[in-house]
Amino acid sequence: MALRYILFHSPDADEREGAARRAGQLCGLTIVPVPGPFSLLASDDSDVLPIPGSGVVIGTIFHRHGPPEAIRDFDQRAADAIRKSGGAHLIERYWGGYLAAFEMPGGACVLRAPMGALPCFQLRQGGLHIFASDPDILVKAGLLAPRIDWEALQRQLFMRDLPSPRTAIEGLSEILPGTHATFADGGETVGQCWSPWDYAATLDVMEPEDGAERLGRALQQCISAWGSRYANILLSVSGGFDSSIVATTLADRGRSLSCLTLATSDPSGDERSYARIIAAHCHANLYECGYAFDAINLDRSVVAHLPRPCGRTHDLAFRAVVTAKAAELGADAYFTGNGGDNVFYNSASARPIADRYLAEGMGPGLIRTLRDVCAVTGASAWQAMREARRVLKQRGRGYVWRTDPLFLNRGIVAHESRQPAEHPWLEAPDQAFPGKAGHVAMLLRMQQHLDGYDRALPFTLVNPLVSQPIVETCLAIPTWSMCAGGINRAVARAAYASRLPPQILDRHSKAGPDSFIVELLTSRLGEIRERLLGGRLASQGLLDLDALGGCLGESRLHTASEYMRIMALLDTEAWIGHWT
């Protein structure tokens, strides 16, 4: 079962210990003694590592340069280094999915791992600071009486996956990945403890062969480390490249592994032939299932356990199958290849051309990258050069975040468009490559979708490709290497060229649940129309009802962007219903 926790910080020991006792009685978590000005409730004390004399690490943490297994304790030397460095020692020497809380010179610090994995939400009650794995446990503990922040909700819908410390529940904020909160002199300061720009490629670029070797080592180390934590793993496989990397690495390390693939009734969403190839290659059992249409309940949100709406209704059908199969097999972990596209920079963009021009100027390398981008994107050389030129012209303006105004009230769109997209990672250095700015934006876009499973479920969700050493390695690889030879994710493919079946290694197509979504939309159009046009989003004035009503007509053919947006709005309606 996923770890759940509530952490209390206050210089007043009586205040925090009293709050912890009362909360523990209500929510069923156990008090775990920890050093420092903290009190802790946790569902499993085996996932709690004391920092001797200073604080605690909650979750899973690995040595950066050690065996691929979770560490069980810190010695006094490591504890002193963590405290004196204000947590920098953790970032430099360790990685994982954790929250660290410790005393440091002049105050205290709560630090979230750079790639997240273990959620952290925050409440303030007077001088008491409360951190928790999920809002539901705060409600059960009597610490949170949830009310929807409608302004934050409309911002979430418009900004489309931009992480923000502000949630859509009033008074509840998030400690974002790679962020720390420090407490001194009665005040709190929130800042970055990790930045992708410390690793992103500059003019000192890595050779392609070195990139493949380094990435291969990082992938094997991180996937093996996560695999060592669990006895019975269920892995979602599509027969695609990313999940196949996870599958073959786990199998090579002798981990107990079962594979699950889902197929639609339409051939466009059926990847079973590829899933069978990778399952046979790994000598793993493969379970082939269809999407659970009867699991679609429009009153249920797929992210009801999160404090912001970031799900899509059709995912209920996928989650139901995963949950049932994990229970049937007694799986203690559910692994995915999620995030691979983002980490490996699988981008249909001309930015690699701009990057190579900035690094090398005109020359044979630039011509090769132009050809590679055309092969990956299907664009003509003229189109690719024109787009690269546009990217170069806009370089000094920073990355422009892609928003989503579709079906939102025009007044809201106008208002939100005047507010700049804000996140520290979007503030690129002056000499940053445009492609690396795009790569960093892709890392941001995946964050809200990596904590998608309810932590009350009897298994832990693991996305091993989104591990700090893997991400840092990929950030250091030039974008033009990522599409070398006209192949997407080229460096990752080179790293695993000798370890995957050629049918998987050479596969570039990708299936999806689109036909299932269209079937859902068509079969329940009347109910969906009534729910959206007469629902809470509409009553709050957030929707463009004319545009949405026209799209939900009986004979309307929907584009992918339209039906995906409809699924998101449907889930948002259900999310609102849950929290009200």
Distance between the first and last residues' Cα:
27 Å
Shape: globular
Q: Could you tell me the strand content as a percent range?
A: 15-25%
Strand order in the sheet with the most strands:
2-3-1-9-8-10
Instruction: Say how many strands there are.
Output: 17
Structural class: alpha+beta
Proportion in helices? 40-55%
Q: Characterize the largest beta sheet: strand count, sense, and whether it forms a barrel.
A: 6 strands, antiparallel
Number of helices: 24
Give your account of this protein's structure:
The mean pLDDT is 93. The chain has a six-stranded antiparallel sheet with strand order 2-3-1-9-8-10. It has a six-stranded antiparallel sheet with strand order 4-5-6-7-11-12. A five-stranded parallel sheet has the order 15-14-13-16-17, with helices on both faces. The longest helix has 20 residues, at 208-227. Helix 11 (351-360) packs antiparallel against helix 12. With 580 residues, the chain is of the alpha+beta class. The protein is built from 24 helices and 17 strands. Strand 4 and strand 5 (55-63) form a beta hairpin. Helix content is 41%, strand content 16%.
What descriptors fit this protein?
single chain, 580 residues, alpha+beta, six-stranded antiparallel β-sheet, 24 helices, globular
List strands and helices in order, with pairings.
Elements: E1 5-9, H1 13-27, E2 30-32, E3 38-42, E4 48-51, E5 55-63, H2 76-84, H3 88-93, E6 94-104, E7 107-112, E8 121-125, E9 128-132, H4 135-140, H5 150-159, E10 173-174, E11 179-184, E12 187-192, H6 208-227, E13 233-236, H7 241-252, E14 257-263, H8 272-281, E15 285-290, H9 315-329, E16 333-335, H10 340-343, H11 351-360, H12 364-377, H13 381-393, H14 410-417, H15 434-446, E17 460-462, H16 468-475, H17 479-482, H18 490-495, H19 502-505, H20 514-523, H21 525-533, H22 536-539, H23 545-551, H24 560-579
Parallel strand pairs: 13-14, 13-16, 14-15, 16-17
Antiparallel strand pairs: 1-3, 1-9, 2-3, 4-5, 5-6, 6-7, 7-11, 8-9, 8-10, 11-12
Helix pairs in contact: 6-7, 6-16, 11-12, 11-13, 11-15, 20-24
